[in-house]
Amino acid sequence: MAADLGARGTARQATERPHPATDKAPLVLSGANVVMPTGTVEQGRLIVDGTRIAGAAPENAHHIDVTGHWLLPGFVDIHNHGGGGASFTSGTPEDVLKGIHTHRLHGTTTLVASTVTGDMDFLARRAGLLAELAEQGDIAGIHFEGPFISPCRKGAHSEELLRDPDPADVRRLVDAARGHATMVTLATELPGGIDSVRLLAERGVIAAIGHTDASYEQTVEAIEAGATVATHLFNAMPPLGHREPGPIAALLEDERITVELINDGTHLHPASLQLAFHHAGADRVAFITDAMDAAGFGDGRYMLGPLEVEVADGVARLVEGGSIAGSTLTLDRAFKRAVTVDRLPVEHAVAALSSNPAKLLGRYDRIGSLEPGKDADLLVLDSDFDLKGVMRRGEWVVDPQLG
């Protein structure tokens, strides 16, 4: 919540005044722990020149002392349904931009907009609207979560609108996205599931296994067909069993799979998160928010597609049935929990929040690390891992608060 952040003194929205990073003068941030792909550089420095990270600082550069702080690459969220009171599935373009900005205030500099199950005609129209925002550079793509999911594991999706993943229907949504379909979540055991995975792989769209009731063997078949992501691993799928290992075992053991995890303390027990990191390794985990409208906004009643959701104490559940309905998570909270509660190395948390999802999106040449030549997407955190500043493409979204 932007207002709350300002009230606590942890960050504030950037003002309209010129700033060294936005008036074309190069900027040098020095003295911080800089997290790089090869490890953390203590007392390091980072140079921003225009919209990019530079390798050398010219004489006219402005200098900011960030001693005692951390510099991280901007977070990349590949699964996000909204925030700031706005839904990516049903809101106006202005609403969507509001939700995007809410997450930027919390460190997410690259975001894929996710939809929830709906009527096919509606989803096709929605894809067109979101495609325009992708063309403007506001979002990194579109993720269709539903309607091609299992009624046995539907979670917060309307059962009446679910359908089998017929390749013709899958192709229709991908085409409606005009080249900006990034990912489609499928219950690949349903009729048409494997053929749809092959179709998506051929079109360069990520096929994600999720909201599934598949067996271990069925999941292996889907991976062999080209699936590469586990949609919020552990959630909305059969539990790991000693005689029926189900999809979790297949997804954890295969090096081709990136596993999404919702690290909010509600969706996963800490031991489950540790299990995923132990078996998949730090280079195959992507932290996501799976956020809905209430993220960065507050408790109350919301709509998730056609379903009513009650958010209480930051936990979203369907009014009817009580199923968890997405999250109110922001990635700055996921990061802090990872390093302070889960005790992950900072470098592993950064991989899960930045480099791994950037690689999955095929954008690691531009985002996901603080290497020279990449977009100047960076975060300033204090020694307690609270967010203090957010820069996106050389512009401060949140002015650094260093006092």
Keywords:
Metal-dep_hydrolase_composite; 8-stranded parallel beta sheet; N-acetylglucosamine-6-phosphate deacetylase; 9-stranded mixed beta sheet; Urease, subunit C, domain 1; metal ion binding; Amidohydro-rel; N-acetylglucosamine-6-phosphate deacetylase activity; disordered N terminus
Give a description of the structure.
The protein contains ten helices and 22 strands. 27% of the residues lie in helices and 27% in strands. It has helices at residues 2-8, 93-104, 120-135, 167-176, 193-203, 216-225, 246-253, 270-280, 331-340, 346-360, and strands spanning 12-13, 27-36, 39-49, 52-54, 62-65, 70-73, 75-80, 82-83, 86-87, 108-115, 142-145, 181-186, 206-209, 229-230, 258-262, 285-288, 300-304, 307-312, 315-318, 378-381, 387-392, 395-399. The longest helix is centred in the N-terminal third of the chain and has 16 residues, at 120-135. By secondary structure, it is α/β, with parallel strands linked by helices. Strands 1, 2, 3, 4, 5, 6, 20, 21 and 22 form a nine-stranded mixed β-sheet that branches. An eight-stranded parallel β-sheet has the order 7-10-11-12-13-14-15-16. It folds into two domains: 2-73 and 368-399, Urease, subunit C, domain 1 (Roll); 75-360, TIM Barrel (Alpha-Beta Barrel).
